[in-house]
């Protein structure tokens, strides 16, 4: 069995559509279908029922779904933990950051403070907030950079960790230009999964919608939701640090007024009593 087969299976289980899942996995649909069939052959039973409406999990597929997620999570953790053992001695500073901030906020933020050579070797771990909190609690990184809202506290208790505000952001409901899905009436929502810090914030602080809404798609990646919103699948609350340029260029538009915006902080967390020189220097910048 190949690792990609598990990723393909989870993508199809989430998308319920071969063409969208193949696009998400960056392969052609025929190649994607062959890999799904290879996984079913390896297991020995169909995992999906194919139909005109897409693909639905069979009873066997439903049983295999959580097992596949767990296997993939364990394999990724084993790879990350093993790599961390080798890198810990060489890296002078390890930082965990959520996906959205890793790709947008972090590069400019770190460059504007000090030349990288002043901090020594930096190891950046990019993952969901849930995974970043886990590795922070395990002491595998020196600092954590994430979105934060006072109504949605995380797992890093004040008695063990301290934090400071290093920036700000705003979550704005966005959709495709001319989309039928806005906040003015019945709408389709593109939501964040439970592992997402932005999903945690919206669950606690999102304003009440004026009309009925249905969550039709979830992902812990803001970039995925941005793409889905741009393609007209629904409305997503997106961080301006990521989607601001899409808004300026007209590839996305507001799905509602500013009353629906959610103001958030960008915070840097570190463990109390840490003695890493790079982390101390970063904290003081």
Topology:
Elements: H1 3-15, H2 18-24, H3 29-43, E1 48-51, E2 54-57, H4 59-88, E3 93-98, H5 99-103, H6 105-113, H7 116-119, E4 122-127, H8 129-137, E5 143-148, E6 161-175, E7 187-192, H9 197-205, E8 213-219, H10 222-230, E9 236-239, H11 240-248, E10 253-254, E11 262-271, H12 277-283
Parallel strand pairs: 3-4, 3-5, 7-8
Antiparallel strand pairs: 1-2, 5-11, 6-9, 6-10, 6-11
Helix pairs in contact: 1-2, 1-3, 1-4, 2-3
In short:
This protein has 285 residues and is α/β, with parallel strands linked by helices. Helix content is 44%, strand content 25%. InterPro entries: LysR_HTH_N (IPR000847), LysR_subst-bd (IPR005119), WH-like_DNA-bd_sf (IPR036388), WH_DNA-bd_sf (IPR036390).
Structure notes:
44% of the residues lie in helices and 25% in strands. It has helices at residues 3-15, 18-24, 29-43, 59-88, 99-103, 105-113, 116-119, 129-137, 197-205, 222-230, 240-248, 277-283; strands at residues 48-51, 54-57, 93-98, 122-127, 143-148, 161-175, 187-192, 213-219, 236-239, 253-254, 262-271. The strands form 3 sheets. Strands 3, 4, 5, 6, 9, 10 and 11 form a 7-stranded mixed sheet that branches. Strands 1-2 form a two-stranded antiparallel sheet. Strands 7-8 form a two-stranded parallel ribbon. Helix 1 (3-15) packs across helix 2 and helix 1 (3-15) crosses helix 3 (29-43). The protein is globular and about 60 Å long. The termini are far apart.
Key structural traits:
seven-stranded mixed beta sheet, 12 helices, Arc Repressor Mutant, subunit A, two-stranded antiparallel ribbon, 11 strands, D-Maltodextrin-Binding Protein, domain 2, alpha/beta
